[in-house]
């Protein structure tokens, strides 16, 4: 892992010092912690003493992505335009903006094409002359506008380099109409029939009112993001930020200012951050999930369910006599595993406990045979799919809990005499749960594609099991109802449990992530001590 | 908004120009006192199967005319690859090639040119376009019959 693949903090303050001073910057800290899977593995101790090295080393690290708001996006695009202006010695910002948009904001390509044949490039881009506007000739006395058919003083007219001159109100009406039509307006040309000369930003600024111009400028920014492979809108619904990432094959998630953490390459709200899987694996998995969805639905509907109440049944041993156990939430129905018929219809006449002669004629057999072929492979797949889904759902629940954490907080504050700083552990716990669930979810994708008999698999499953077990434990502790806490002592005890498990699962998460990143071979010994 | 008044002023001028200099091959009038609804007639061009036909066209002119093109519809039935059976017309001039400099009269000139020279590569009626390409005589025959029957 190279230095540039890691990130620094915004201010280098260690989060534990923040905790001690009761400083409220914990949320920022959590954001930052979200990002640093790699070096956080240094933090293996359960105690509060952190090396100051950690914060120092963070300061020297470069983040390889940047969250941009509208203003920053604007300056990014301006910076790019300025660079091209300098390199090509063009002094019109508007002209360079048109050229850049013409080549999808690809600076290198623009410079190359411009060097090669600037006249052709400019003509193709719709600016045959770099002098983008034609001033009114001093000899012009009268002017008759071909759009409104009115006569006007020449001073109230405007023409692009093609000298197709119209009055200012007509230009305004024309551009308002174009901008009203949407993002395509940035390709608007001169209003003359068949004229291909492009309208530039400076002209729009001059010819329409400010709010309309701002709409136009936003469309230019939109094209800056849409056409630029290094900048993408954050996929979270309603988010206004965009993210710039210079490294193409970045593996680690990026974290938007809205709090959403996701893979920059996939840029998908549903997929989010898919650590530890590579993007290609997620693609394959999702494709498989959609290919298999019918089979999976069939399997879920037809196997290992009580024929009466549909609750899941575990079959132990070879006996065909099944009972849907009431203490496991079932209905108590007794039935035959093979034919799914009531056990009361069975006995020595039907073949006893280990066989069933009703089976051959039953619909159950037909169903089983239909499933048999697909079954073996499918069952293996479903094992992973089930767990993938259940962690995905658990993550949604954890997300819900995170949003409702302040309610729990209020409950605590009203029931016990504690400071609000004493409830911070709740937020930390839900954040940790979210992280763990997300990694666990994708760990089952990773596991599905891992070589079935490899050495790596052993370690992988070992780490995964640890993480899963402790995450479930943290969930259980976290979900404890406040009503069950009888006194302050009980609260403190519970708080310690949750806090402790937050730390423990963080350690297991780090171990897991580090193990996968390290190729699942070198870590086993250090894991065991 | 100054746009609707631009539209009215320009339509007023166009209409007066047309009244001042009548054209033999077409006529146009405003429907009632609504400047945004016109009725036009175009005489079928000589040498085309539409010759001597009188074709009525309804023009619907948007509020942001001339920045947006008028919409037109043949109300006379016509057998033509670029004119749909409901009378709507397919022409680039009325979509991406529109220029606010163009006038109603320019639109009608284009329509008349389309009667002289159909554009079967960009059709609204695929069957008619196919016939136009492969069996011109049959096309001409039907077009003439329709002209005689409907475009009196
Ligand atoms: Zn004008
Ligand atoms: Zn022009
Ligand atoms: Zn966001
Ligand atoms: Zn990805
Ligand atoms: Zn049951
Ligand atoms: Zn049975």
TrEMBL record, chain A:
Its EC number is 2.3.2.31. PROSITE patterns: TRIAD (PS51873), ZF_RING_2 (PS50089). Residues 141-360, 145-194 form the RING-type domain. Residues 1-57 are annotated as: Disordered. GO terms for biological process: protein ubiquitination; sorocarp stalk cell differentiation; sporulation resulting in formation of a cellular spore. GO terms for molecular function: ligase activity; ubiquitin protein ligase activity; zinc ion binding. Residues 1-37 have a biased composition (Acidic residues). It catalyses: [E2 ubiquitin-conjugating enzyme]-S-ubiquitinyl-L-cysteine + [acceptor protein]-L-lysine = [E2 ubiquitin-conjugating enzyme]-L-cysteine + [acceptor protein]-N(6)-ubiquitinyl-L-lysine. It comes from the Eukaryota. Keywords: Ligase, Metal-binding, Repeat, Transferase, Ubl conjugation pathway, Zinc, Zinc-finger. It is an enzyme of class 2 (transferase). Pathway: Protein modification; protein ubiquitination. This is RBR-type E3 ubiquitin transferase. It comes from Cavenderia fasciculata.
From TrEMBL, chain B:
It holds the Pfam family UQ_con. Residues 6-152 form the UBC core domain. InterPro entries: UBC, UBQ-conjugating_enzyme/RWD. The lineage of its organism: Eukaryota, Amoebozoa, Evosea, Eumycetozoa, Dictyostelia. The gene is ubcB. Gene3D superfamilies: Ubiquitin Conjugating Enzyme (3.10.110.10). This is Ubiquitin-conjugating enzyme E2. GO terms for biological process: anatomical structure morphogenesis; protein ubiquitination. PROSITE patterns: UBC_2 (PS50127). It comes from the Eukaryota.
């Amino acid at each position: 892992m190279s230095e540039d693949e890691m990130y620094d903090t915004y201010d280098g303050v260690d989060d534990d010092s923040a905790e001690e001073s009761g400083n409220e910057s914990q949320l920022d800290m959590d954001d930052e912690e979200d990002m640093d899977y790699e070096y956080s593995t240094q933090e293996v101790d359960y105690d509060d003493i952190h090396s100051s090295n950690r914060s120092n080393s963070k300061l020297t690290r470069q983040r390889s992505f940047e969250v941009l708001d509208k203003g920053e996006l604007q300056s990014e695009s301006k910076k790019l335009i300025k660079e091209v202006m300098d390199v090509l010695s063009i002094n019109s910002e508007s002209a360079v903006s048109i050229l850049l948009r013409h080549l999808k904001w690809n600076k290198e390509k623009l410079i190359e094409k411009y060097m090669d044949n600037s006249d052709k490039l400019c003509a193709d881009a719709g600016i045959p002359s770099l002098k983008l506007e034609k001033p009114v000739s001093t000899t012009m006395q009268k002017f008759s506008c071909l759009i409104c058919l009115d006569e006007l003083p020449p001073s109230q007219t405007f023409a692009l380099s093609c000298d197709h001159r119209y009055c200012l109100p007509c230009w305004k009406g024309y551009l308002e109409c174009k901008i009203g039509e949407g993002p395509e307006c940035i390709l608007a040309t001169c209003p003359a029939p068949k004229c291909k000369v492009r309208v530039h930003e400076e002209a729009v600024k001059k010819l329409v009112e400010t709010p309309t111009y701002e709409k136009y400028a936003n469309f230019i920014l939109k094209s800056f993001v849409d056409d630029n492979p290094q900048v993408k809108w954050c996929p979270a619904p309603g988010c206004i930020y965009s993210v710039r990432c210079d490294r193409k094959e970045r593996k680690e998630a990026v974290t938007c200012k809205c709090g959403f953490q996701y893979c920059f390459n996939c840029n998908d709200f549903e997929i989010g951050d898919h650590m530890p899987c590579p993007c290609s694996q997620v693609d394959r998995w999702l494709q498989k999930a959609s290919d298999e969805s019918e089979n999976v639905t069939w399997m879920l509907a037809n196997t290992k369910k009580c024929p009466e109440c549909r609750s899941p049944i575990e079959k132990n041993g070879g006996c065909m006599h099944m009972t849907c156990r009431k203490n496991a939430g079932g209905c108590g129905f007794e039935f035959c595993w093979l034919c799914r018929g009531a056990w009361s219809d069975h006995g020595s006449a039907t073949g006893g406990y280990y066989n069933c002669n009703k089976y051959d004629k039953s619909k159950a057999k037909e169903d089983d045979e239909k499933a048999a072929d697909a079954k073996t492979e499918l069952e293996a797949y479903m094992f992973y799919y089930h767990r993938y889904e259940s962690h995905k759902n658990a993550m949604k629940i954890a997300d819900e809990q995170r949003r409702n954490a302040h309610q729990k907080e209020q409950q605590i504050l009203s029931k016990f005499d504690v400071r609000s700083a004493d409830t911070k552990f709740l937020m930390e716990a839900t954040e940790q749960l979210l992280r763990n669930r997300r990694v666990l979810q994708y760990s089952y994708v990773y596991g599905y594609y891992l070589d079935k008999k490899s050495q790596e698999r052993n370690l992988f499953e070992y780490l995964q099991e640890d993480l899963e077990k402790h995450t479930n434990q943290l969930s259980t502790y976290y979900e404890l109802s406040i009503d069950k806490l009888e006194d302050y002592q009980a609260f403190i005890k519970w708080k310690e449990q949750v806090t402790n498990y937050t730390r423990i699962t963080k350690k297991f998460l780090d171990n897991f992530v580090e193990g996968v990143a390290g190729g699942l071979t070198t870590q086993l010994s250090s894991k065991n001590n | 908004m100054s746009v609707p008044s631009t539209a009215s002023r320009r339509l007023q001028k166009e209409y007066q120009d047309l009244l001042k200099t009548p054209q033999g091959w077409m006529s146009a009038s405003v429907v009632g006192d609504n400047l945004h609804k016109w009725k036009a007639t175009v005489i079928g061009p000589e040498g085309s199967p539409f010759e001597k036909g009188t074709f009525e066209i309804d023009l619907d002119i948007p509020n942001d005319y001339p920045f947006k093109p008028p919409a037109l519809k043949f109300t006379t039935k016509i057998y033509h690859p670029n004119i749909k059976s409901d009378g709507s017309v397919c022409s680039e001039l009325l979509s991406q090639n529109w220029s606010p400099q163009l006038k109603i009269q320019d639109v009608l000139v284009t329509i008349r040119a389309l009667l002289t020279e159909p554009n079967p590569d960009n059709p609204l009626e695929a069957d008619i376009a196919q016939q136009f390409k492969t069996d011109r005589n049959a096309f001409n025959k039907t077009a003439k019959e329709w002209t005689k029957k409907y475009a009196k």
